[in-house]
Design goal:
Helix content: 25-40%
Number of strands: 19
Largest sheet: 10 strands, mixed
Distance between the termini: 53 Å
Number of helices: 11
CATH superfamily of one domain: Vaccinia Virus protein VP39
């Protein structure tokens, strides 16, 4: 076997062992559609070093990355010239497109519960890899994929054509869906959304499903699987898995730099019993609930140049901010300011989560009706409900 064949075989074995994909037809799609054909290059970062490095074929590192479990960044600042620039050095900027982590793609495709003849709309064409998997399963004639970036769509079209896949592709704002091809039996978003657009619900057939990652300023990673009902309502539970995706282009955000405008004596300082990781680590079972209750937040961490304890900053677009530090003695302190006491809200959310019995994300669900987004625990009409901030 060649190196490529060995890596692909290990990749497929790992997907099967992970349990994220058990459907034989989806397993066949991942086996027959090679990821390297859709990711000829990607950008990566090195710990402690600024900027992005380009990794492209035929380097050994490139192929190992392609057949790893990682999401791969494929565009910086929406500017394709960065590929050429990165061949001579590092480039700076914000990631604007990627190839999603394969295990996450697999579990979402399986959860979508597609059947022969279903028409599917994909929001976020990206590299075209996920589009190709849908074409393999459903046939090109049943697949529609849209993306706001024309160059991304054109590249995906060329890559798909090499496998004789010719889905309907459009360059358009994903929030509007694709009315000319509606209604759809399934809609799947591979970009993070702060809300579920009404157009998606209108363009989904009755009883159809929408699978969308909720992006709350980069937090939560909630995968909402909703069913569309007659009264224009979309409702369903969250999947148990973390589903972090790059936000849709219009909502792209960077770690807010409010902290750079905060003076040393600004805000109010007090002790706290909570570690910063509770609110910033996606692996922590509380993080998603914190984001739901306070409305999400950006964060960044660093060690000050004066050698002081590491600082974790949380910020919101409204100008609210928190600086969290853990002293050498293990005690935690926060300094916060702005229109909302953000850390106070996180502490309140933590107490509520504890009182509810520390429920996991799959016990929560979402109802969308007339633009209103209501999160609930266990049942839509139960006593525990929250409107999305």
């Amino acid at each position: 076997m060649t190196d490529t064949e060995i890596l692909r075989a290990n990749f497929l074995d790992e997907l099967a062992r992970s349990g994220t994909i058990s459907d034989p037809e989806w397993q066949a799609a991942f086996r027959d559609v090679p990821r390297e054909a859709f990711v000829p290059y990607y950008f990566t970062q090195r710990p402690g070093q600024p900027g992005w490095l380009l990794v492209e074929r035929p380097r050994t590192e490139w192929l190992a990355g392609v057949y790893s479990a990682r999401a791969l960044i494929t565009q910086i600042d929406g500017n394709d010239d960065n590929v050429t620039l990165a061949r001579t050095g590092r480039v700076n900027g914000v990631a604007t497109s990627s190839s999603s982590a394969p295990a996450l793609m697999a579990l979402m495709l399986q959860a979508l519960d597609t059947h022969k003849g279903h028409g599917v709309l994909e929001i976020g064409t990206g590299t075209g890899y996920n589009t190709a998997l849908l074409c393999h399963r459903l046939g090109s004639e049943n697949v529609t994929s849209i993306d706001i970036d024309k160059s991304i769509v054109n590249r995906a079209r060329e890559r798909l054509a090499t496998f004789d896949y010719f889905p309907h592709l459009e360059t358009t704002d994903g929030t509007g869906g694709c009315p000319s091809r509606a209604p759809f039996d399934r809609i799947i978003a591979t970009v993070g959304m702060a809300r579920v657009p009404g157009a998606w619900i209108e363009q989904t057939a009755l009883g159809g499903k929408i699978l969308v990652p909720l992006d709350l300023a980069g937090r939560a990673g909630l995968l909402a699987l909703l069913t569309v009902f007659e009264d224009g309502k979309a409702e369903g539970s969250f999947l148990p898995d973390f589903g972090g995706f790059m936000p849709i282009r219009a909502n792209q955000h960077q770690a807010n730099d409010v902290f750079s405008t905060v003076g040393d004596d600004d805000g109010y300082t007090r002790e706290t019993t909570l570690h910063a990781n509770l609110a910033t680590n996606p692996a922590d079972p509380f993080e998603f609930f914190a984001a739901l209750i306070v409305g999400g937040y950006d964060w960044l961490g660093f060690i000050p140049s004066d050698g002081g304890p590491a600082e974790t900053w949380l910020t919101q677009p409204n100008g609210s901010w928190v600086c969290h530090v853990t002293e050498a003695n293990g005690k935690h302190a926060v300094r916060q300011g702005g229109p909302v006491r953000l850390w106070d809200g996180i502490e309140t959310a933590y107490r509520e989560w504890q009182e509810l019995g520390q429920p996991a994300r799959q016990r929560f669900g979402l109802t969308v009706r007339d633009g209103r987004h209501t999160v609930w625990l266990d049942q839509p009409e139960g006593p525990h409900r929250w409107g999305l901030v």
